[in-house]
Amino acid sequence: MNDEQAFDPYNPNCPSRQLVDRIGDRWTVLIIGALASGPARYGELAESVAGISPRMLSQTLKALERDGLVAREAFAEIPPRVVYSLTPSGESLRPVLLAVETWARQHMPGVLAAREAFDAQAA
Predict the structure, then answer these.
(1) Which residues of 74-103 are buried (b: 16+ CB within 10 A; e: fewer)?
(2) Model's pTM, two decimal places?
(3) Per residue in 55-83, pLDDT tens?
(4) Is-contact 33 97, C-beta < 8 A?
(5) How many CB atoms lie under 10 A from the CB of residue 63?
(6) What is the pLDDT of residues 96-120, one digit of tens each?
(7) DSSP state of 10
(8) I need a surface site. Which of 17, 40, 57, 102 has the fewest CB within 10 A?
(9) What is the DSSP string of 36-101?
């Protein structure tokens, strides 16, 4: 049995379930998208990912670093400077998330129409 077969995200006790949850999180998708263009400082990420609170940005960056998707590099300068970048694993995830982003952009008109029709039936 290879590693891929050993992990089952359909099993709620499997650690791969946690990874699927991380990848599916909206802030993860947006942060990885923001870092796709290159390394960024915390403030730059906060601007790029509109609507994220400072606490959520910090938590998500720490979780992504823990999962090996984002690297944090601190520079011994005054004032201190910290830069975040995608790791090779994070880079390999980018095309997957870009496909989801592209799908959402292309299918949004149909989704909005379906929502409107559903809401009209429910009313």
Answers:
(1) eeeeeeeeeebebbeebeebbeebeeeeee
(2) 0.86
(3) 999 999 999 999 999 999 999 888 889 99
(4) yes
(5) 17
(6) 999 999 999 999 999 999 999 999 9
(7) T
(8) 102
(9) TTS-EEHHHHHHHSTT--HHHHHHHHHHHHHTTSEEEEEE--SS-EEEEEE-HHHHHHHHHHHHHH
Selection from 29, 58, 30 nearest residue 42 by Cα: 58
Amino acid type, 119: D
For β-strands 81-86 and 40-41, DSSP reports them as antiparallel
Cα–chain center distance at 23:
6
Looking at residue 86, its amino acid is L
**Phi then psi dihedrals of residue 47, to 5 deg:** -70, -40
Angle CA(23)–CA(20)–CA(57) in degrees, nearest 5?
A: 35
Q: Is the dihedral of CA 65, 71, 75, 79 positive or negative?
A: negative
Q: Which amino acid is at 25?
A: D
Token readout for 79 is: 């004032």
Which tokens belong to 57?
Answer: 């940005």
